Amino acid sequence: MSKDISLRKDAASNKMYPKIELIRIVKNKSGDIFIDNTKKANGRGVYIRPTIEAVEKVRKTKALERNLKTSLENEFYEKLLEEVKLNWD
């Protein structure tokens, strides 16, 4: 019996990828936005591929901001880039 792989849409490319290959960014009820390493936190989740190109693309197109219905500071994107470089390379 094989378990189905959960697919999620990458906000940068609009393509579907296995959930485990993506970074989840969450906006919770109190409006906090953070990188959800557990992939289980409550709130609105948006997924992106853990590549520098994907982070740059969602920054340029404001895809995360549209999906989370909020504006994001430059510092958040810097933190996201650090996360990609540290944990996904």
From TrEMBL:
<dbReference type="InterPro" id="IPR037465">
    <property type="entry name" value="YlxR"/>
</dbReference>
<dbReference type="Pfam" id="PF04296">
    <property type="entry name" value="YlxR"/>
</dbReference>
<feature type="domain" description="YlxR">
    <location>
        <begin position="8"/>
        <end position="80"/>
    </location>
</feature>
<protein>
    <submittedName>
        <fullName>Putative RNA-binding protein</fullName>
    </submittedName>
</protein>
<dbReference type="InterPro" id="IPR035931">
    <property type="entry name" value="YlxR-like_sf"/>
</dbReference>
<dbReference type="InterPro" id="IPR007393">
    <property type="entry name" value="YlxR_dom"/>
</dbReference>
